[in-house]
Amino acid sequence: MLSIKKYAAIDIGSNAVRLLISNIIEQKGKPVQFKKNSLVRVPIRLGADVFIKNRISKDNTQRMLDTMLAFKLLMKSHKVVKYKACATSAMRESENGKRIVDLVLEQAGISIDIIGGEEEAAIIAATDLNKYIDNNKTYLYVDVGGGSTEFTVIHQGKPVASRSFKIGTVRLLNDMVKKESWQELEEWIKFNAMGYDKISVIGSGGNINKIFKISGKAMGKPLTYFYLTSYYNMLQTYSYEERITELDLNQDRADVIIPAMRIYLSSMKWSGAKNIYVPKIGLADGIIKSIYYDTVSSNTQ
Fold first, then answer.
1. What's the pLDDT at 122?
2. CA dist 263 to 75, 124, 139, 294, Å?
3. Is the Cβ–Cβ distance between 142 and 203 less than 8 Å?
4. Nearest Cα to 211, choosing from 159, 261, 151?
5. What is the mean pLDDT of each run of 10 residues along the chain (301 residues)?
6. Rounded to the nearest 5 degrees, what angle is found at the Cα of 11, between the Cα atoms of 8 and 14?
């Protein structure tokens, strides 16, 4: 017996807002399959408001409402049976975040959970990495966002340490990350990578996905530290406008890609990793899995 249901995840980040719709395929005697059906990304960049003025502007509040109404209609058209919406760093720190959550519920009928940094790291770490990783190896999972970056050390297929740091691309663009934050991150990575002979980085987030696509590498093959450093240096020789016109980057990607690479490269350097794997998964994928497993556990109780 084959069962296919559609679940949706809404990830309200500091740089962009995403709607991921996935097919949940269940077949007796076989493991459940999660297949991406549709992904919509809207670059609202809430963090640019919040990290400078501590609140989301009137203009971006309206854009949020319009986007959530659009997502509601898309979920209806797709016949989505369950969804979960999670807001991260920008909404966490915004003094009017709670009011916007209430407005969205009232006007779009979408309920938003504002999640903490550690919960965000846990959801990301719970994504099914088994098909991407070798259980005999050790990895540092780095999920770069606009307001924060989540780090998880995975040893023999299990998370052994996890932490969220307020170092994100939008914060870095606005020069809002103190030297002490970088030092704290360096110490955390070195301390947690210390006991392992060899470590590789797993990178997630829109920027590393874009770099991987540009590299032309086959899925499952890693990018090297050397390749990433060369690309990082090359990017800096182009102006913001040239990155859009000559390198064909979207305008909301052309500026944040450089601070994102700085985070990935620092993570590789401090952990001693020579390679970075890019499985194209992130918070939205983790949300889909959490909806499914929560449903399964509540049905078996």
1. 82
2. 34, 17, 16, 33
3. yes
4. 261
5. 96 96 95 95 95 96 98 98 96 96 98 92 76 89 94 92 95 96 98 95 95 95 98 97 96 96 98 95 91 80 60
6. 165
Largest CA distance in the chain: 58
> How far apart are alpha carbons 74 and 68 in whole angstroms?
10
- Going by C-alpha positions, the residue among 228, 230, 232, 220 that lies closest to residue 277 is 220
Tokens of 115: 């999640």
**pTM for the model:** 0.92
Half-sphere exposure in the Cβ direction for 295 (13 Å, CA)? 13
- 3-state SS, residue 96: coil
Q: CA 169, CA 257: separation in Å to the nearest integer? A: 8
H/E stretch holding 2 reads strand 2-12
Tokens of 46: 């809430």
Q: How far apart are CA 270 and CA 167, in angstroms?
A: 15
Strand partners, 18: 11, 41
How does pLDDT run across 259-293, given as a tens digit for each residue?
A: 999 999 999 999 999 999 999 888 999 999 999 98
**How crowded is the C-beta side of 136, counted as CA atoms within 13 Å?**
0
Cβ-Cβ contacts under 8 Å for 216 (sequence gap 6 or more): none
